[in-house]
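Q: Start with the shorter request: fold the first protein.
A: Done. Sequence, then structure:
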Amino acid sequence: MQIVSAVTVTDWSNKVVLITGASSGIGRGLALELARRGARLGLLARGAAAQKAFGASVGGRRSTDLPVPVVPSPALLEVVKEIEEKTDSQSGTAATRTLLLPADVRDAKAVRASANRLREEFGTIDVLIANAGVGATTEATKLDPDEVAQLININVIGAVNSVAAVLPEMAARGSGQLVAISSLSAYRGLRKSAAYCASKASLSSFFESLRIDLIGSGVDVTIIHPGFIKTPLTSGRKANMPFLMELDYAVNKIVWAIEKKKKSYAFPWPLATIVRATMVMPNFMYDWISSRNSFRE
């Protein structure tokens, strides 16, 4: 028997939401907004040890070992502090409504253990927001296979690990929602962004395939394709970033799309319209335009 999806989400009170990449950027913004709306949150992000090692690997020293994050990172603790300061005390303190989950999304066992901890603490997980991701800009002739693999492991495999940790239980009970934070970069390749664009295209296709597989299961899938947002990922860029959005504005758009259970949501609409138009543009024309513009440097 097929299960018809429930009505749109309008009341977040006591909804259990797992957010990956929750210590900064979009993940942090979503954590603050959903906490304000009364959700119970599992905030997953690399622990202090893992963040230190990740920074070192980007700087040139690589390790195949994933460090065990013993404690939440200072950034994740700051998110909880801000939630405590901004949320209504009547809905409960951050300590009773927020669970910190220091884990690396590349580690499937750690992600699964984190999801189990969240269930034990708050009950069934209603929404997964697969947000964890990193960016990179590199000349085609300077691509490093190890660095590309690391980016894809975080942006794509990290999301796969997150889905695997929550989907079986969602499907068994016939309800839930999987949300992917992708990018408008998923639609077309961009200059010096081969790895990043490939990761976002893969992420979107993965979740689109899940959506088709889950028709009638009661589990909804939403793919978010945002444009440029003021986050640590975009700070310091010299590139032209048209229609650059404030984080709070983008977060509210994302929450709206989740509530409406949109299958796919691309914004802001002027930039999304332009990007979609390039998909039917002759390749020679797109190549000429893209080679003369830098959006991610």
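Q: Next, the second protein, separately.
A: Sequence, then structure:
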Amino acid sequence: MNKAVILDTNLTVLLIVGLVEIEQVGVHKRTRAYDREDFTILSNILSRSSRLIFTPNVVTETSNLLGRSSERYGAQLSRSLAEVVGASRSMELLISSQAGFSRDEYKRLGLTDAVLLHAATGNGDAIILTDDLDLYLAAAHDGLEVVNFTHIRRDRRDF
């Protein structure tokens, strides 16, 4: 995959927790739905992408979810998020809230997901990577390139 990847909040949280301490994946309260193999799969996908695209909405949600953590890795998680978003192969795409509000999907999905759909619209070089079924279905309905991480997890050999 040589496309840019637009990550949703849940997968961004998984990425950050796994980068800081892989043993915390599956233990940390925000990544209990995942395991270490999920982090490895995500890392492999992202390593083959041309760029990581974040929106301020996803970064804010991720920061809030990790920042409210009473986990002992709180400061490291915050630093890692800042480093990943600020990395040379990352890009923060600024999209106005009004652009998200104007999408029909806003009422169903909320602002962050509506902004992710807007980010992918007209960006043929980008693919949305999500584990959110509703976001996946909305993106597919709009003809956007989207991958449901849950499908990748389901196809693992150990399932």
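Q: Describe the second briefly.
A: Residues 74-86 form the longest helix (13 residues). The domain at 4-154 is CATH 3.40.50.1010 (Rossmann fold).
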